[in-house]
Amino acid sequence: MAFVAAWSRMALRQRGRGLIGIAMLLGLVGGLSLLSVGGARRTMSAYPRFLRSANPSTMAVDTGPVQDPDSAALLDRVARFPQVEQIHAYVSFNAAFLVDDRPDLARPFEALGSLDGRFFDQDRFTPISGRLPNRSRPAEIAINREIARRYRLNVGDRLDIGVFSDEQTQDPDFFERPSPPQLRVSATVVGVGLFVEEVVQDDTDRSPLILFTPALVDKVEAWHTYAWQGLVLRRGDADVPAVKAALVSLTGQEFPQIFRVTSLDTFHAQQAVRPVSIALAVFGTIAGIAALLLVGQAVGRHLQAEREPRAVARALGVTPVSGALASGIGPALAVIAGGALAVAVAIAASPTMPIGTVRQVEVQRGIDLDWTVLGFGGAVFVVSLLAVIAVLAWSEAPSRVMRRSSRQGWGRPSLSARAGRNLPTPVMIGLRLAFERGGRGDAVPVRSIIVGTVGAVAALVAAVTFGTSLTNLAGQPRLFGWNWDVALVAQQGYGNTRPGPTSRILGNDPDIEAWSGAFFGADQIDGHNVPLLGMDTDAKVDPPMREGRSITRDDEIVLGTATLARLHKRVGDSVTSGGGRSLRIVGSATLPAIGVVHGDHTSLGIGGVVAPDQVPGYDRNITGTGEYGPNVLFVRFHPRADIAAVMSRLRGAADEMGAFPGALLVTPVQRPAEIVNADDIGRSPTVLGLAVAVSAMAALVLALTAAVRRRRRDLALLKALGFTRRQLGLTVACQASATVLVGLAVGIPVGVALGRVLWTLFAHQLNVVAAPALPLASIGYVVAITLLLANLLSALPARAARNLSAALVLSTE
Hints:
Elements: H1 2-53, E1 59-65, H2 69-79, E2 84-99, E3 102-103, E4 110-114, E5 126-130, E6 140-144, H3 145-151, E7 158-164, H4 166-169, E8 183-194, E9 209-212, H5 214-219, E10 224-233, H6 240-251, E11 259-261, H7 262-305, H8 307-315, H9 320-349, H10 371-395, H11 398-405, H12 415-419, H13 425-435, H14 446-475, E12 486-490, H15 499-507, E13 512-525, E14 528-534, E15 545-548, E16 556-559, H16 561-567, E17 574-576, E18 582-589, E19 608-610, E20 632-637, H17 643-657, E21 664-667, H18 673-676, H19 678-710, H20 712-720, H21 725-766, H22 776-793, H23 795-802, H24 806-811
Parallel strand pairs: 4-9, 6-8, 14-19, 16-18
Antiparallel strand pairs: 1-10, 1-11, 2-3, 2-4, 2-7, 2-10, 5-8, 6-9, 7-8, 12-20, 12-21, 13-14, 13-20, 15-18, 16-19, 17-18
């Protein structure tokens, strides 16, 4: 033991900087790995944790117009359902900004008034800036981020708002000659934030909203228009079917069944957040592997540097076990210190997590001590590297090294030497250094260097392929269910279009290739609430199919893939509707994110397509026109259409197809939440690719530096034989280029194949049409930049080669 202690003190004095470098390398790269994996877990759990803090409703129910006595009574009857544990409601009323005492119809918004504490105690509104209004002050309001963005509003702004009755807004002259408001309010914005369902949401749900306090609701009681009740159920989602059945028994199947189940919002939110979390986890795993490889190589180089002193010690009688223990104790201490540093780095950087949209509602900001990741990950680093140290320390025993090196050499000309006979001498020697291991004391692990380069290139190309496919998805709406150009939506999905004018206008426009209508609604399918699109069996425009076919009979149904999985059904099976009718599943489709605002609607993987008469309440007539046209019209333009001209015509004809001016909106692509958050997802592969590229270049520089150091005898001999400094630099540059070219030649096809497989699996999980893209331009950039960087970075080891003293090196031989 005295020998071990003395050797350790000597190693610390002579190679202490190297050991500190090992600890720092593991601390930084390993810390980044632990941070990323812990961040993936924190990002994935952020929305559920936020939801619990907001005291969410299990479900929300639309009980219709408040002024209708039957609807008002329905509020009380729903509150007495035995499944209901807690209930809070909000009401809406006709409100508008006032400019010179006239409603500003160019800046519409929806007024949400807390009736009894909803958005304050239940489904709590989350301020991003400012605070919640004081519920006892009628002049304080909060606004959502959407209205703040659209109309450039901020905390502290004072807004003049007027409240109007239904009779006023339904007057045909209201839009030209509006009557004075029933109530004027000068309100102050005290908070800008998000409602529970707005954290991660579809474009369909994006509405400018203002939250009014219960104190103001009391003043506008006579002008309430509709109400939504938020229900907290005793057994959570298990009670949802019973509540829906009880409501249908009170209202009848013909009543519009419009609900919002929080678990569906959670599903979409988690679907949208999952790609970011996966990217973080993958990056953390790659960083962890890189940490093990880089530190393992550093440890190997440290132990190789002690080979000759250990040979002397062995000749003086030191046993192999004592020699191995003496050599390994320094690296072992460095690894233990590096593991502790990695944990400390991950903890210190944890306030940067979570990332993406959910960061704005993170309920536990600051330091995160996720000991599942920190403890287990840190232990993996330390234990794995200690095992590597033990193996390398024993394998570097002098007797074993002599036996191994005696069997190695450069005797017979290799393939690279024979192939390079007609090349300039520096190029030929560079190829030989790249592909030949060498012998005796100058052996270089060329195979591991090439394999590492191939792996790095493959990972980089896979990340680029994945990112390009994601960009392709976001740029092709058909892939996420939007199989048309525009949708004409009546009164946010609650109104009806007029069939006569619709057929005449759309049918006679030469720039319109095809169009179809759909009714919004929901029904109990095998006991589960399923949002529906009611479409004609011969619809010319429908969602893109993934399996099977569209409906051709009124006893058929097409379902989203997630709904199929939830019902444990496959194409060809049958399901039962809420009305007791058997429907045969004839296909699965990628459904669009569209439907009634605030209610459940179809989206990626969720919902179904049925004939119109299978949608409960499909023929509701909110507009009072006596016509029951679809709630939405899907319009596909002719490929050679003048887009600007046809859009202008549609906007001009919208008032004729709708119930009243402004009732029908020409709506562009509505993205699901998963695509809305594509910016967060899209940056992740880029960051991953850059990290892989940096790791690859760092590994190449370290490998070249080690090769120059191990081959200094051969380089010194070349210099003594007349090689110029320029030729020595060219030799090292050719070595770098050859290594990278092999990595590119093998890594690119492997990376493309891997990226396409990963994208296809991801697309199926996301319930979109899988269409992996081939990033030819990006791959070209990867090739050019990789070769350029390899040659630029090879300047460091090339400089060391040029500065070798041939006399000094050869004098030691």
